[in-house]
Amino acid sequence: MTIDNLFIGVITFRRPKGLRRALEGIAAQTFKTAPPPVTVIVVDNDRDGPMVGLIEEMRPSFPFPIIYAVHPEPGIPFARNRVIAETKGADGVVLYIDDDEYPEPDWADQLLERYRATGAEAILGPVISEFETTPPDWVSQGGFFAKRHFTDGAEVPFANTANILIDLKVFNTFGLQFDPRLRYTGGEDTLLGMQIHKKGGRMIWASKARVYEIVPSSRVSSKWLISRKFREGNTYVLSEKLAGSSSKRQASLFLSGLARVGGGVVLSLLALPFGKVRRVRAFLRAARGLGMLYAFAGRRYNEYKTIHGS
């Protein structure tokens, strides 16, 4: 399968160390065969454009052309859509990686290999947590920062722009975009995945296309984990509603939220004698359910008004 263009998109907001690390990882990409023309697109979601100095510092020795665009309208969906706008309707694929991540040297090649083999509308790879400081024992024992993994080549039920290849026809032909209504909540990638499925598209797992996410110390707490799980439940239901899920599906999700809250409360009481890992797991179950019910009440949790890491 011929690929006309390979765009690598990074959106950033006040994380100069993270952006430098991400770009260094992109610069170190290796390919078994000559890749399609590669362009890196950095969208700065800070109206003052503070990353311009870093970009100009790296540009002379960078192995690929870099487009640096400032998008002053705040919100993750706006920045992700600006990446697509900078492709100017070209055919090919776009890879997204976050500014608190860095890829393995064959990351892009592994995504391309799976795309060539399947022609799927999206290819996703694993995100592996790497802690900024040594986490407490209960965090390691509970695996609370471990991400979901799938069998290599399996179809994936959700999208995650932390590590993804998307065929540009999703935007140019299907007419999809990252939904601006999820400006600060997150979940715009979850919704996009649902919409890809509704259009008959496929999303496939590439287990060797690995990136590493730096987990700052500000996130290593039960409080942050609980708030994240609450947000995940909230945005999942919001995405289902925005994707036009049926009344039956929404009723099922509502009952699931209730069950999670009730089960989480019971489990948290039962876990009292058994240590922090079990207690936190119970709290997370209840928090996801509460987030789901919060969405059904017409409320949103705007997690991304706060930035973690540098």
From TrEMBL:
Pfam families hit by this protein: Glycos_transf_2 (PF00535)
Keyword tRNA-binding: no
Keywords of the record: Glycosyltransferase, Transferase
Domain of life: Bacteria
Entry annotated with the keyword Kinase: no
InterPro entries given in the database record: Glyco_trans_2-like, Nucleotide-diphossugar_trans
GO MF, one annotated term: glycosyltransferase activity
Residue ranges constituting the Glycosyltransferase 2-like domain according to the UniProt record: 8-172
PANTHER family given in the database record: GALACTOFURANOSYLTRANSFERASE GLFT2, RHAMNOSYLTRANSFERASE WBBL
Assigned protein family: Belongs to the glycosyltransferase 2 family.
Official protein name in the record: Glycosyltransferase family 2 protein
